[in-house]
Specification:
5 strands; single chain; 7 helices; 49% helix; Helicase, Ruva Protein, domain 3; five-stranded mixed barrel; alpha+beta; 189 residues; 20% strand; elongated; OB fold (Dihydrolipoamide Acetyltransferase, E2P)
Length: 189
C-alpha cells in the first residue's frame, strides 16, 4: 500500500493537486487547508490514502500523519465518504474534532455533512476516543510490567504491585517507581 509520495507540484485544482514524481504524475485530492500550503513548482511530501470504489481509484493526500490517521478513522464510519472525511480531517485529532462538532451550527460549514450525520459522527468518535484511550492505557501497563520483569520480578508480582499503585499516578516512570516501593516493602527491603 502507498503511504507517502514525494514529488513536485505541477498543478493545483479546486480540490486536488497534481504531483509529478518523474515519469508519472498523481492526482491527489486535498483539503482546502492543505491546498493553501501548496505552491506550483515546489517539492512536497504527502501522506496518502488510496480509496477504492468499483468505478474509481482516488488518492487523498495530507501534509502530516495526524490528519491521515483522523481521515482513516472518519472514513471508516458508515455513511461518511472520503470527501466529508477529508473536510473533517483538518482538525488533526479526534478530541479537536469532537470539540468543534459540538459547537452549534458547525455542520453548516462542512460540505456534504448535515446535522444528523454530525450527531452520528459525534457518537462514533466518542467511542473511538474511549477505545484509543483504553488501548493506550493497556500499552502503558504492559510497558510498566515488562520494565518490572526486566528488573527480576515475576509478571504476577509486577501485576499485583501495579494494581496497588494509586490511580492518580499516570506517568509510566512514576508508576514503576511506586510499584518498586510496593515490591520493596513486600520483600522487606
Amino acid at each position: 500500500m502507498i503511504y507517502t509520495i514525494l514529488g513536485k507540484i505541477v498543478k493545483i485544482g479546486e480540490d486536488f493537486i497534481v504531483l509529478d514524481i518523474g515519469k508519472i504524475s498523481f492526482k491527489i485530492f486535498c483539503s482546502e487547508n492543505t491546498l493553501k500550503k501548496c505552491e506550483i513548482g515546489k517539492e512536497k511530501k504527502f501522506f496518502v490514502f488510496l480509496y477504492k470504489r468499483e468505478d474509481a481509484l482516488n488518492l487523498y493526500g495530507f501534509l502530516n500523519e495526524k490528519e491521515l490517521e483522523l481521515f482513516e478513522i472518519l472514513e471508516s464510519i458508515s455513511g461518511i465518504g472520503p470527501k466529508a472525511a477529508l473536510s473533517l480531517s483538518v482538525f488533526g485529532s479526534l478530541e479537536n474534532l469532537k470539540k468543534a462538532l459540538e459547537k452549534e451550527d458547525f455542520y453548516r460549514k462542512i460540505k456534504g455533512v448535515g446535522r444528523k450525520k454530525i450527531q452520528k459522527i459525534i457518537l462514533e468518535i466518542t467511542g473511538k476516543i474511549k477505545e484509543i484511550s483504553l488501548k493506550k492505557k493497556e500499552r502503558e501497563k504492559d510497558e510498566v510490567i515488562e520494565a518490572l520483569v526486566s528488573l527480576g520480578f515475576s509478571k504476577k508480582m509486577a501485576r499485583e504491585a501495579l494494581n496497588e499503585v494509586p490511580s492518580h499516578i499516570r506517568n509510566p516512570e512514576e508508576r514503576i517507581k511506586e510499584a518498586l516501593k510496593i515490591l520493596g516493602k513486600k520483600r522487606g527491603l
